[in-house]
Amino acid sequence: MERVLALVLLGPFVFFTTVTSQEDNVCFRPVLTANIETDGLQRFFNPGAELILSCKQGYTPVFGPRKIVCAASGEWTKTKLMCKPKRCPYPEPLSNGETYYEEIVFQSVINHTCDEGYIMTGSSTAVCLANGTWSSPEPECKPVSCGLAPIPQFGMIIYDKRIRGNATDYGLRVTYKCLPPHVIIGNARAMCTLNGSWTKTPECRVVTCPAPENIDRGYMSSNEQRDYDYQETVKYGCDGDYVLEGSLQIVCQQNGNWSEKPSCKAPCRVGIQRGRILYKGKQIWIEDLQPDRVLHKDIVSVYCMEKAKECGYAVPTQCMDGELKIPECFEQPSNYVYTFNSSSLPSEIAHC
């Protein structure tokens, strides 16, 4: 409704009056559904006014009229216009890699990764733009490459497979060898890694060990007082009835030290005066054990009596570096029983 102020001239007098005119209802700015827009920006619209609808950037119309009209009732006519997001093309399969996505519509994101041993050239992500294209082209997954493996001084390299040119692929391994008398210090194997470089290169160095020392109650195959080269060996032996325990020989190692030396273990005396023993599968009277000794780690059994059952049984014991413990159950017979009644000894009666 509009009010008009009118000026009326009647003779010498001037009168002011208000003229009121009644009009139909107006339409307010329309409330539009998501992804739809219009160019009309005013607050009120008179009946009969028309608005052209369009889809927002990145969306495309599906169906329905694209115009609404302000009716005399002050309401806008209905529209079924729908706008759906634009689609980008499906990404091509990434050679030597993987592409991950949920949708391929406007504002969707895709992610690219390369397989192990390959490095990406280009962007790892892309966004679907309003014009239906991806924000960046598909990347490439190129194999990781190292140069030729470095060769240490006085050394040489053996590749696990034949190579061509000056490039090597990720995962390729090499073996290092040194020219005599040099030896490898470090890992003799190396590999082309994911960052395009080789693992640590070993060193070729001359290694010697000092003259080895003899062992107690033993002897060496060489008594030369000189430096010994890497992997030279010296053998050991033991005197008399002593037994060598450990490796028969020692070797000069790459750290300049000898491997662990053996030792000579002493024989044992069987500490009983009267009785019969079981040794190496045979029963032997103690006086017949000549000489009275068993070697290191030999097993000897003495006989004990089970008095309740009146039977005998053998109990083993082992010689350990000169010591042979006699089991507590052993009872040494008297000289009389041993000489005149030996058939009553535990070794001679029925066994339990």
UniProtKB/TrEMBL annotation:
One of its GO terms (molecular function) is heparin binding. GO terms for cellular component: extracellular region. Keywords: Disulfide bond, Glycoprotein, Heparin-binding, Repeat, Secreted, Signal, Sushi. The keyword Transcription regulation does not apply. Residues 25-85, 86-143, 144-206, 207-266 form the Sushi domain. Residues 1-21 form the signal peptide. SUPFAM superfamilies: Complement control module/SCR domain. Its main location: secreted. It comes from the Eukaryota. PANTHER family: COMPLEMENT COMPONENT-RELATED SUSHI DOMAIN-CONTAINING, MEMBRANE COFACTOR PROTEIN. Binds to various kinds of negatively charged substances such as heparin, phospholipids, and dextran sulfate. May prevent activation of the intrinsic blood coagulation cascade by binding to phospholipids on the surface of damaged cells. This is Beta-2-glycoprotein 1.
